[in-house]
Amino acid sequence: MSAPISNVRPKPDKVLTDIADYVTKHEVTSKEAYKTARYCLMDTLGCGFEALEYPACTKLLGPIVRGTVVPNGAKVPGTQFQLDPVQAAFNIGAMIRWLDFNDTWLAAEWGHPSDNLGGILATADFLSRNKTRLVVKDVLTAMIKAHEIQGVLALENSFNRVGLDHVVLVKVASTAVVSQLLGLTYEEIVNAVSQAWVDGQSLRTYRHAPNTGSRKSWAAGDATARAVRLALISKTGEMGYPSVLSAKTWGFFDVLFKGNDFKFQRPFGSYVMENVLFKISFPAEFHAQTAVEAAMQLHPVVKNRIEDIQSIRIRTHEAAVRIIDKKGPLDNPADRDHCIQYMVAVPLLFGRLTAADYEDEVARDPRIDLLREKIVCVEDPQFTRDYHDPEKRSIANALTVEFKDGKKLAEVAVEYPIGHKRRRKEGMPILVEKFERNLARRFPAKQQKAILELCLNAEKLAATPVDEFVDLFVI
Fold this sequence. Notes:
The protein has 475 residues and is mainly alpha-helical. It has helices at residues 14-25, 31-51, 55-58, 85-97, 117-128, 136-156, 167-181, 186-198, 215-235, 252-256, 271-275, 289-302, 318-324, 333-336, 340-350, 360-363, 366-372, 381-388, 424-440, 445-455, 458-463, 466-471; strands at 74-75, 82-83, 309-316, 375-379, 397-403, 412-414. 50% of the residues lie in helices and 6% in strands. Strands 4-3-5-6 form a four-stranded mixed beta sheet. The longest helix is centred in the first third of the chain and has 21 residues, at 31-51. The chain starts with 13 loop residues before the first helix and ends with a helix.
């Protein structure tokens, strides 16, 4: 005879209360985190402006029902749209992620913490236009906390190994910080975060052959928009699910995580924002960033000897082999920007790698596939160890080119990409230049100047009301 089922409500899982404690009680004091968050805000919006040049992205934007305008709704930077905060979050999130050019976090799970800006900015702007005046510092604080929740959960817990997409962490992190912005009570925040975990989670199907496709470019927008929706539902007093993670048989751990609990390397603070990786020079999956840098260094040497190349060895780390070591046909840009061979072949041939280089017009050049076939990835166990080392967090790649006459070029190794914390002094001026280029894609000179001057003035930016800040980006 089986034991009777208890109807006593359990205490909330510790992960839920730890997240709620962090978003409601933790004061961010790190000047480095706020400085990095300001650069992150600039870069993330800039990535969205570049994405607006691509019809595959813009066709998804706007209200669900065409022509709908929401009075006092959240505005979508770089567009004329004014929408409810849920749909605005999707719009902003899809723009940010479309070209795979925003920031990155690499650990047991990888992802892009600035994806959370979709929900954060849409909610903050909506509130600021409706009698709850927030300033940009509130946005930066929410960004720091969203980065931290997503990144700390990712340090020791691999969702990709159980087939789940990393956007589950965008949904959880965005739900937590958006709930706090919306003024939910502590209990309501716990409920909202439980709703994010109990939601059906995205499979990684759209990131891998033979199904690689453009959903990977709007999945994070979908996740951060869903977070805003769940926060608004929870604000009504809707109940939560306290043992959503730990419940036997029906909880997240048993259903989706092979019965394992989450592991935590560190408590929530501001570590992730301080150490986040920026994609500054190349719109490439981050495990290939240093390989692209190495290929750029080799371009002047090999550009006139491409036909003489016998083989190219990429000495790399395990995650790169698992995610982006890809042979065979590449069907679309989403396929190509997750193929390390493609991302190395283009700069070797042309001395560049831009978002446009993933499009069919470039990809049909037969030399790219011929070169791809000559590129082999080999895991270096030390590179893999350094990748996981919290003191290093390197993303190393090393290229060796061998010619048909048997001669080899000296190996070109790059351990830390230009967007790494160890290269901030070198990288941040280039990040600002990237932001300036992206502003120029969308706005007239006077508007560009006003935006840039404000963004480079940390104190003034932090005190600017969110709605006034967003209005700077309206066309």
